[in-house]
Design a protein that fits this description.
Elements (H helix, E strand, L loop, with lengths): L1 E5 L2 E5 L1 H11 L7 H32 L3 E7 L2 E7 L5 H30 L1 H13 L9 H8 L1 H21 L7 H9 L3 H23 L2 H20 L4
Parallel strand pairs: 2-3
Antiparallel strand pairs: 1-2, 3-4
């Protein structure tokens, strides 16, 4: 268990966070020093990105509703709490939305920083290649040479771009307990419908991840979330 504070907010990193991150990195299947280093870079990128995401929740909650803010990083991401805080529905929306918002902001900051050094055209071309596999011509070889000469920095940048964009997008799907599900819960009634939406969206994402993306981890995660939403429907009674 690792504990520290940032901006006055206590952070607890549970062992399962590291275990799941290592499994996702593919580090257990690597038998070379380079492979282990690449896995370590993924774990660091995930840690930094998820921490920034949870800080978005916690800092916004502390600003809008007060309470005792704390963060836990656990197996499938993180949790931010503002215990004792009082929020209106609009404030709750901003508390939830500023988690992925912080991640997208971090993504923009990375792109802007690289653009200042290497030029916006080349960095944007590289970003769309990493995120969408769309090729575009580079205006010079400066950025490409940098990436080739610094392969581990290149890999770390790729991880940061990918995590902060795609994980942020996926997290906004209307599936409880993801942030998209929590936003849906603020505006959709009755509660049973929220779980029905979550069950359908989770199942759809699970099938897409398995058959289109070939990602067993993502398929398993969303299959589990769909099952959780289904169980919530069964265990609660609504008129």
């Amino acid at each position: 268990m690792i504990r520290f504070s940032i901006f006055g907010i206590p952070v607890e990193v549970q062992p399962f966070f590291w275990i799941v991150s290592v499994l996702m990195s593919g580090g257990l299947y690597s038998d070379s020093r380079g492979g282990l280093l690449a896995a370590a870079l993924f774990v660091v990128a995930a840690f930094v990105s998820i921490l920034i995401h949870e800080l978005g929740h916690a800092l916004t909650g502390r600003k809008l509703g007060g309470g005792y803010a704390r963060i836990i990083l656990t197996a499938f991401g993180g949790l931010a709490f503002n215990e004792g805080g009082r929020f209106t529905r609009q404030q709750r929306f901003w508390v939830v939305a500023m988690g992925p918002g912080a991640g997208f902001g971090f993504l923009i900051a990375i792109i802007a920083g690289l653009s200042l050094v290497f030029g916006a055209g080349d960095v944007l071309a590289y970003t769309q290649l990493v995120l969408f596999h769309i090729e575009a011509p580079f205006q010079s070889d400066t950025f490409l040479n940098f990436l080739q000469e610094k392969p581990y920095i290149h890999l770390f940048i790729r991880h940061l771009l990918w995590i902060n964009f795609w994980w942020g997008v996926i997290n906004l799907l209307p599936v409880l307990p993801l942030d998209g599900g929590r936003i849906t819960e603020l505006f959709v009634r009755p509660q049973k419908l929220v779980y029905q939406i979550g069950m359908a969206a989770g199942a759809a994402m699970g099938f897409y991840a398995f058959f289109a993306l070939g990602s067993i981890y993502t398929a398993g995660l969303f299959g589990f979330l769909a099952w959780q939403n289904y169980k919530a429907i069964q265990e609660n009674s609504w008129q």
